Amino acid sequence: LDAKIQQEYKILAEYKMMMSENVRGVYVIPSHDNSLIWFGVIFVREGIYRDGIFRFSITLPDTFPNNTQTPVIQFKSDVFHPFICPESKQLDGRDAFLEWDSSCHLWQLLKYLVFILEQPEVCLSSPLNEQEENNGRNREALEMLKHNRGDFLTRVKKCVQESQEKVFEKVEEDKHAIVFEEWNSSVHGVFMEKIKSNQPPETIHQTTISTNTGVFP
């Protein structure tokens, strides 16, 4: 029991550290039911994946943070990228985190995610590309990026569009699941006006609860 409590404190500290880093365009929250699972979404702001809204989960090892296994980022929709497996939809972060240790943090993993989506060309210089058994990566995307950029851009544009079309779908049954709602001026307009009038955050939060919209500040 003591070990579990210590782990929960360390996970909370990791979350606070990540919040202080303010990773651009990325929002995450631990699951209500299992702190080893986090829900996330990334709004890509630059590069060829720009305007993509990609949901993902982060799964921490059972022994986190006392482990050498890198936490697993798994996308909820297809992301055509050399470092994202088309079957499992998992990110291959071995170039940055060959082995996880006490110096590694989740905010670093998320910044790496932002980096490879905004600058996928860095994948071309990975020494792991030469391995015959390149499990965990998308060989088709890598070859297309290298030799046929036009087709690569077409595939990327398609997955970006699909991510936008699926943004309102509910993908997790959890009290902390990240949920998006279509704009409703009679409901969400209240928050917009309060934000414009610089009302204190606690006032906005109280209104959020009372209107029961599922939209959080």
UniProtKB/TrEMBL annotation:
Protein name (Swiss-Prot/TrEMBL): Putative ubiquitin-conjugating enzyme-related protein ft1 involved in programmed cell death
PANTHER family registered for this protein in UniProt: UBIQUITIN-CONJUGATING ENZYME E2
Domain UBC core as annotated: residue spans: 6-165
Domain of life: Eukaryota
Record-linked Pfam families: UQ_con
